[in-house]
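EI: anyone free to look at a 168-residue chain?
SC: sure, send it
EI:
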Amino acid sequence: MSRGEGPLLEESMRANRDSRAAERTMWAKPSTRKGLRIRGSRGHPVVRRAVVRFAVWLRAEYVFPVRVPVYLSPHQQLVMMDGQYASASFFAPWDPTVEPYIRMATGDYRSQQAEHGRDHALAGYLGALAHEVVHYQQWLETGEMTERGVAVRSENMVHRYAQIVAHP
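SC: here you go
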């Protein structure tokens, strides 16, 4: 074990253990359809490749007992049900037997890349997906969602992923 790997490995094991415990005591009902799936061939191809790689890592690190598809949109922003705009969203059904889903806008990648560079732009998309995955985890556990602690948990998720990849 190299220096600095110990705490990272411990955090990974703790997250996996917590995910398994959540599966046993979750609000949502497990189904035969499990996992995290990326959909959206019209999403920006560079963002799609980065999100697919991140999703492979997420599946190895976390349990997804209820399928959650991630729909990549070619638009710059998404229109929410209340008319507001967002770059990503999580649909949390009221019924625990209905599958949730995540939507992500990828149409502003070129402007983000020009402003922040490729890696930072892609890290923003991965951070948005991680944020919505944390909401998915909240929904699994309680059926409710809050912003409390979501930013820290999602940043930790992306930071752990950054430790094992050279570029997003």
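EI: Residues 5-160 form a domain with the Collagenase (Catalytic Domain) fold (CATH 3.40.390).
SC: 👍
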